[in-house]
Design goal:
single chain; mainly beta; nine-stranded mixed β-sheet; 22 strands
Length: 166
């Protein structure tokens, strides 16, 4: 059972979801998996093949594309953008529009307990470690070690996260 505000929800029949998932208006979910008790804010899109774990908070205006896996207990702030292709193109060499072929999906893994601040951009093919923190507005171009805080553009480590105040 999904607890949802019915305003503008687009949840495809192929979405797999756990118990107690909360959705707010104008979400677009298709072909993805959502874990128990996860909260998904307004204007969020989660594409096919993406996985969001249990007890996560996905804030409004966030885009989670194909190839992204978010483990349990992850916080994703407002307006976070994930990408899955480091060399995007609209057309191939033959000038035909590239839709589902002609590119390689680069998977991204956000490990349990991580936090991603509002407005961050996460490039494809990366791992954000367990309990890591990505500062608001950061552009993550490299893996983030477990427990590390990164900030800036490009995101750089500033300090390990305090385990007493994660």
């Amino acid at each position: 059972m999904i607890e949802a505000n019915p305003n503008g929800l687009r949840v495809a029949s192929d979405v797999k979801h756990g118990a107690g998932v909360r959705l707010f208006g104008f979400v677009n979910l298709y072909g993805c998996e959502i874990g128990d008790e996860t909260k998904i804010g307004c204007f969020v899109e989660i594409q096919k093949g993406a996985k969001v774990g249990a007890r996560c908070k996905i804030s409004s205006h966030t885009f989670i594309c194909e190839g992204v896996t978010i483990e349990d207990g992850v916080f994703v702030g407002h307006g976070v953008m994930f990408s899955n292709d480091r060399w995007p193109r609209a057309v191939g060499e033959d000038a035909e529009i590239l839709v589902t072929f002609g590119w390689e999906c680069q998977p991204t893994l956000v490990k349990k307990g991580a936090s991603i601040g509002s407005g961050a951009t996460i490039l494809g093919g990366l791992v954000i470690g367990e309990n890591a923190m990505v500062g608001a507005g950061s552009v993550v171009t490299r893996d983030v070690p477990a427990g590390m805080t990164v900030v800036g553009n490009p995101a750089r480590p500033i300090k390990p996260r305090n385990p007493k105040n994660p």
